[in-house]
């Protein structure tokens, strides 16, 4: 139990070193996390008590398929034979079920959810700037005109870059569940067996009628 906490403490020291070297101590960092944070929300909050956590939600089938593709690619780097795709699928299902279950247990503690916001992935993709503005608003902040222009410029450049890399992505990225011995019903059934996992694996109904941004307290 001490290992994850120590890892986050070292992570904080690393970020502080980056800040000092760049002279950016007064700036706010935006860090894209990984699913591993779901398993260790308590440690994350302990080491970064003022952090604002934004949990981006996609349909469970998409998350599982995408992670299977990532794990397959990771294994291909280290294995001399092709990865067992069915084994990859089973491993991803087990990992996500445990991660979502642990996150649900921690989120029963009010102090953990004070700065937590849930974001719908589809809404973020459809109108990124509006969603970021809503996230800022939920924290009592305001997006400046300079910030808005920077986001719009970044998005325009990202569209151009994505079109150039689409061919390579199709060649290496396979997120179809059937490729890993899985299916939509099988994924949903796996999450239903893990209490809290079922609740957070699909929030589409909760997001209906919203702009895709919810404070955690609004899910209670």
TrEMBL record:
It comes from the Eukaryota. InterPro entries: P-loop_NTPase (IPR027417), Stf3_sulfotransferase (IPR052736). PANTHER family: OMEGA-HYDROXY-BETA-DIHYDROMENAQUINONE-9 SULFOTRANSFERASE STF3, PAPS-DEPENDENT SULFOTRANSFERASE STF3. This is Protein-tyrosine sulfotransferase. It comes from Durusdinium trenchii.
């Amino acid at each position: 139990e001490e290992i994850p906490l120590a890892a986050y403490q070292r992570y904080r020291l690393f970020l502080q070193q980056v800040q000092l070297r760049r002279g950016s101590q007064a700036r706010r960092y935006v860090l894209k996390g990984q699913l591993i944070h779901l398993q260790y929300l308590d440690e994350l909050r302990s080491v970064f008590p003022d952090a604002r956590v934004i949990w981006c939600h996609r349909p469970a089938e998409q998350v599982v398929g995408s992670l299977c593709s990532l794990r397959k690619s990771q294994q291909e780097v280290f294995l001399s034979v092709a990865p067992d795709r069915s084994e990859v699928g089973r491993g991803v299902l087990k990992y996500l079920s445990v991660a979502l279950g642990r996150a649900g247990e921690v989120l029963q503690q009010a102090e953990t959810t004070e700065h937590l916001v849930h974001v719908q992935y589809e809404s973020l993709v459809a109108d990124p700037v509006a969603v970021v503005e809503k996230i800022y608003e939920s924290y009592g902040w305001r997006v400046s005109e300079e910030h808005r222009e920077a986001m719009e410029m970044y998005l325009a450049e990202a569209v151009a870059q994505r079109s150039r890399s689409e061919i390579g992505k199709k060649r290496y990225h396979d997120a179809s569940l059937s490729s890993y011995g899985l299916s939509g019903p099988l994924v949903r059934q796996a999450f239903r067996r893990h209490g809290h996992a079922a609740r957070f694996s699909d929030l589409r109904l909760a997001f209906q009628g919203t702009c895709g941004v919810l404070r955690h307290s609004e899910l209670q």
